[in-house]
Design goal:
Keywords (chains A, B): Glycoprotein, Hydrolase, Protease, Signal
Oligomer: homodimer
Low-confidence stretches of chain A: 1-43
Number of strands of chain A: 14
Number of domains of chain A: 2
Number of helices of chain A: 19
Structural class of chain A: alpha/beta
InterPro entries (chains A, B): AB_hydrolase_fold (IPR029058), Peptidase_S28 (IPR008758), Ser_carbopepase_S28_SKS (IPR042269)
Radius of gyration of chain A: 23 Å
Helix content of chain A: 25-40%
CATH class of the largest domain in chain A: Alpha Beta
Organism (chains A, B): Coffea canephora
GO biological process, one term (chains A, B): proteolysis
Strand content of chain A: 5-15%
GO molecular function (chains A, B): dipeptidyl-peptidase activity; serine-type exopeptidase activity
Amino acid sequence: MAMGGTRLRLLFLTLQLLLISSAKITLRFPSPAFRPESSSSVSIKSKLYETKYYTQILDHFTFTPQSYQTFQQRYLISYKHWGGAKKNAPIFVYTGNEGDIEWFTQNTGFMFENAPHFKALLVFIEHRFYGKSIPFGGNKDVAYANSSTLGYLSSTQALADYATLIIDLKKNLSAVDSPVVVFGGSYGGMLAAWFRLKYPHVAIGALASSAPILYFDNITSEYSFHSTVGNDFRAFVHMHVSLFDTGKCWRRSESENCYKVIKGSWQLIEDTAEQSGGLDTLRKSFRICKNYISAGALVSWLSTAFIYTAMTDYPTPSNFLNPLPAYPVKQMCKAIDDRKAGNNTLEKLYSAANVYYNSTGRATCFNLNDDSDPHGLDEWSWQACTEMILPIGGNNADGIFPPSEWDYAGRAQSCEDAFGVQPRPNWITTEFGGHNIQRVLKRFGSNIIFFNGLRDPWSGGGVLKDISKSLVAIVAKEGAHHVDLRFSTPEDPEWLKHARRREVKIIENWLSQYYHSSSS
Amino acid sequence: MAMGGTRLRLLFLTLQLLLISSAKITLRFPSPAFRPESSSSVSIKSKLYETKYYTQILDHFTFTPQSYQTFQQRYLISYKHWGGAKKNAPIFVYTGNEGDIEWFTQNTGFMFENAPHFKALLVFIEHRFYGKSIPFGGNKDVAYANSSTLGYLSSTQALADYATLIIDLKKNLSAVDSPVVVFGGSYGGMLAAWFRLKYPHVAIGALASSAPILYFDNITSEYSFHSTVGNDFRAFVHMHVSLFDTGKCWRRSESENCYKVIKGSWQLIEDTAEQSGGLDTLRKSFRICKNYISAGALVSWLSTAFIYTAMTDYPTPSNFLNPLPAYPVKQMCKAIDDRKAGNNTLEKLYSAANVYYNSTGRATCFNLNDDSDPHGLDEWSWQACTEMILPIGGNNADGIFPPSEWDYAGRAQSCEDAFGVQPRPNWITTEFGGHNIQRVLKRFGSNIIFFNGLRDPWSGGGVLKDISKSLVAIVAKEGAHHVDLRFSTPEDPEWLKHARRREVKIIENWLSQYYHSSSS
């Protein structure tokens, strides 16, 4: 059974472009050959929400004939625990990000688990141009054809979609006075934070998890992303069961060796590939299926594994991007540091990659040229070519890749080649700000929680310090990418339980303040 | 010398549509035959600012090929009193409204007069599609041709224009840390308030003068506008020189008669027109030139005079819409109440209209079908057909017109006929809010002054109560439309001086808070 890896363009990763320009090698992108939707998540889906569609306008900000076109926007809704319109019970809305909304919904257990406590209606809105929310008659061939149609895929249009849909939904439910709290992770977290800032009349607060709203326009160092990946492999986290304690605790272990082996792997692969018979050696070492191999494709395949494992280094087994064991970084480093495996570095790297690509143990070989897109994330490449210019490509001495600089010109050229479009690299900070955020928002805005886990490579672009009493940063040193939003498990460590309790507490405060203001 | 009257579509007045649907008569719109730009304002223009152009993008919110088109956006700039980039001296920006920016600039003396005190750079940005800021190659024939091009005329695009231009200008001046305060009156005041709410990272505060941001979506009564006009003619204001006081003071006088005569005039005109030779009687009474007359045109011409005189009932002689004496409402009522003039009501109404149309005394007859547009305001009719759906058309018992209801269907049909476009009546509140503004902004946002004069028919849609410590309402009972922004005169009453002093004080506080935050 052959398996690939979740592709790199995933989750606003535009690494393919970065690697092209830094490593000067041509890359292709592997992708998993199966959907990581477990049978349990399928049952969540069928039980926990209904699927609905809303007739959405194509362009909120102009009034051309084209702008009046409509499309069907999908949203998922769960009334199960809602206290109802008469009681002005709250509405929790997930501001969908760059993929199929069912996938994000199934990975946002926090909302389901807290709905009973808050008596909240749950709504998960799909982002335009993703999943089943496709403009131009739902026809992807048309919608994705070129910039004339893709041009309507933008963050500002998505936010206006959410405002429009929420207002209309509340009217239809006779629930105009029900307070709305928005939630989102990653790009969805950016949207949640921006939504609260731009539409305070629609949402009373936002939980923005792992939202790198400062990873634009040189606010955050271009080296931060890959440095964090490097640091994750230098100091991994694992569960520690003590003979003397009654409970469990987590522990941090150092492994300079693990980091160095990974950092050296890129050169090793290139050197090996250049030797006579080298590609065959690589193919055998990494169990690559017979169809396609190149040094570039292998580098991409391997870097995908390391980066996404760092991003999703969750404390319990998970199945977000790929099925993974608890603390997968630790598992990778264990494979790399294994003394019994001798000096065969390629074999050790394969064992590490196996943690990401083959935790089930069912794969016998891997495809490097698998181009499938199980979560419907492909159109992020359009967003990364227009407004979402996050300069994550640089590597300094701490980076997981050889030293390199973020190459804007390379990105622009790739975008010109792929879409015939020019990026607008300053647009996000023009529209949403980011520079001097402490000064700007100190006396402006309220009710946003910025959660960040410091093991998450994106965390460098997050808000890591409180801005004001009600613009709050929750920072989990041992946390990964929006770990707080995931379904809880009995094995969750104390720091994670604590972060979620704090989030619940803060949201309770927003709501009681709202009800107090309404009655006074 | 023939003169007409400033046309009714002026200053987001869409009265033509309202009157069409309520009075069921066809109206045409007169307009002045000269530009009310006095020789003194020409000298202001040539001395006080330079004219510049900025290459602006056509559509900020999409990435279609069309969206990348650019146009030349005009702005006026005065460095005269600027303290300079090195000192982070402030930048005062006027967010231009629906007309030629020179005209608004010349009527915004407040910024010129306070520039020396604040050492402020002054910038007045023209709104897209007005004046000389015309997309599509600056060609009005193309830009105004139909909804495919006019579609890019919208408030959100205008706000994004301002953000883009200001950020770029600051970069070019090496003044990225200079704080920006925005100013605007009327629709420009709405834009100023919304700009602070949507772009807090660009402007530290806003003075929004006579900005009816609540005149949307039934937040404010549809009767408010015409009731205020009626009340203005019931109780006019004038200067009172007391023999016993050393100074001057203003006084309010009642005149139920003045209001009743005006309110009865519409029927009187219709009745007269229906009599044999009636139109000739009307022509003679109102000194209408030989070319065109109808009851509808005369009603429009006369209502223009009453409404705009109420709106601009300034305490000193002015030349905003037309040249007017101080307290022009009083002058009109004086004519109507004049006992010496006997019982000839038409003659009295003519004398009142003469205050608005002929304060110079140079006109010998008036054109009703003058269609010129001296301030370049015509495209407001597009905005009033798309997003700016201000339901000002109703008349209750207090209204200046016969009882009538605001007729949305009539508006929509007119817009369909004129432009083939459907209004989006809920869009403004979706994008900018307005409902429950006290609750929504009580703990969100800061640093906006909402000035309103209660004699201004628009004031009913303004923010008339403080929302929080830094979202402040300044209400001048005797004030008219953005009177605070006008050049001061030695004759200004104390309430006006007081309002301006308060505004200056508040802006000083914003700036000192900003400098304090920057240094800490």
